[in-house]
Amino acid sequence: MTTKKGETTVTDTFDFVVVGAGSGGCTVAGRLSEDAATSVALLDAGGRNDNWRIATPFGLALPYRPANWAFDTVPQKGLNGRIGYQPRGKGLGGSSAINAMVYIRGHRWDYDHWASLGNAGWSYADVLPYFKRAENNVDFDGDYHGKAGPLHVNRLRSDNPIHDVFHQAAREAQFRIRDDFNEEDNEGLGSYQVTQHHGERWSAARAYVQPHMDKRANLRVETAAQATKILFEDGRAVGIEYVQGRQTKRLRARREVILAAGAFQSPQLLMLSGIGDGDALRTHGIGVVHHLPGVGRNLQDHPDFVFVYASDYPHFVHASISRLPSLLRAIQRYRRERRGPMTTNFAECGGFLKTQSDLEVPDIQLHFVIAMLDDHGRKRHKEAGFSCHVCLLRPKSRGSVWLKSADPLAAPMIDPNFLGDAEDLESMVAGFKTTRRLMETPALRALQKRDMFTADVRSDDDIRSVLRARVDTVYHPVGTCKMGADAMAVVDPALKVHGVQALRVVDASIMPTLIGGNTNAPTIMIGEKAADMIRGEMR
């Protein structure tokens, strides 16, 4: 029953209160609520994200602000002082509701590296079962894939002939063609699998939460509910305070509070609640519950450069949706077959390459996009064309997230520190050259009407200059509540926050280092493994 205490509404008590309905939060909430005897509340500041703009993959081309926090960075010293853009998902599904749906796990080396840092239970052999448990892969089977999980994975249904062109270009550049990027090795180029089902986006919410919202009495989902504070009693997390509409409300947690608000907002909420660097918290008038200096540190993201070309090729998408050739036919086909251009994730092809042959693992990733992508699609051009991203997979630069003020509704301050380490710039120069080899193959040269930004870039100094002028995120921030046992670690290998009780973090912020690839599938894996660890402790 609901009671009133001053201006704060105290609502029900649940076994678990999960903050953030992104990839980690949806996964852990969905799995924990499979047990009818376990009650779970899932909170998110956004909406339900159950409309056609989210479900239709082509909706990526249509700005939809209600589902995007649309953060900015602080000025980046390594990028000529530019302010970067950090889109993050808001609402059920989080970033899996607005991303490009590319299904990539990363290299086995990444997880073995986590284990080597002292994180027992996180080696590749340890995490592979959770990737498989999550997955329902239409195309692949065997030792590396699952067929019965809630996350649908399959090849694109766009039927775009550009795939054949891209594969031909890869052969001309003497890169290997890879069919499956999610085996132990992923070097090579090819066509990506996506998190779609019958041509529709299959976010973490559609996989783990939305099918059960009206069926599981033990699962309560609150949208438009922005968490403002973790409640503590004697060093134990006992609930969450949040704002919904004009009301301040509270939910109590019998067992645990689980943070899954992402690499920016999980550390922000910890700091607002008194968990973080004590001196920094006191400058904002925040009482210190536990001094934990690593909160908000260790931010890592893939620095990314985009080659952009104008083209007359008829299968590229124009920036103006109204000019898309055969738009009405494409919509009709989508309604009838759930196939064709409306199913595109735009980043249809790509892969993983080594800039030096003696490297142990690939160090760059490509995303080949069937549209001209300038400033994250925010700058429009009159012509159709294509783009090719190249990102550095394991940058050495480290950034941070901190509080702008004690106002819980204010955006956090975000500093990825792109190209802050001199080695990252030189590695990006090598990545630029490697990617240009592909762009200059006969197969892709034949499609190019005009090189938009790199026609006059020839020397290494030219490359460094254009990189500093145009590099930005490829949307993979991690690491700000890193897992480990060192002085800067925030959570232990069970994802429990050091120094307090009944509080875990279950999202990409716990990654001690960036994985070599897209971060959505690994975050879902983290949610699966967290749920398993929690259930094991409850037995």
TrEMBL record:
One of its GO terms (cellular component) is membrane. It holds the Pfam family GMC_oxred_C. Its EC number is 1.1.99.1. One of its GO terms (biological process) is glycine betaine biosynthetic process from choline. SUPFAM superfamilies: FAD-linked reductases, C-terminal domain (SSF54373), FAD/NAD(P)-binding domain (SSF51905). It comes from the Bacteria. Its cofactor is FAD. The keyword Flavoprotein applies. PANTHER family: CHOLINE DEHYDROGENASE, MITOCHONDRIAL, GLUCOSE-METHANOL-CHOLINE GMC OXIDOREDUCTASE. This is Choline dehydrogenase. The lineage of its organism: Bacteria, Pseudomonadati, Pseudomonadota, Alphaproteobacteria, Hyphomicrobiales.
